[in-house]
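Posting here for the record, re: fe (ii) ion.
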Amino acid sequence: MNRRKALKVAGVAAMVAAVGAEAKMAVEHMNRMDMKPKDPAKMDKGELKHSPLVTIKEKDAKGYTLIEITVGQGGIIHPSTPDHWIDFIELYADDKLVGKSTLEPEISRGAASFSLKLDNVKVLKAKAGCNLHGIWTTSVTL
Ligand SMILES: [Fe+2]
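Prediction output follows.
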């Protein structure tokens, strides 16, 4: 195989890998229901266990604000066992995906943090995927 052909093959392989990752993410979302608390002011135990808690921390010298997301609120922490765990957390700024964390069972719990420039952002949205109980979203208007 000459160099040009080898580069072409490597490029195609990289494209397939990239498309594969996006397809995998789409399937992750497709097979799960979007969930939200019936009444956000009065969440039950299951809703508290799954709804992401978004905490906006301090802005650093470069203008990035630390955003902490934990899954579980009101002292209830979502479990992280081999068959039940939070497998991803995503953060959206005005509906644009700006951060994603993929989590493993047992060793990771449902928590992630990101640093963002929030100057023109109006709404932050955190999504947490439970492998058994759907995708839970919390929105924060700034
Ligand atoms: Fe769950």
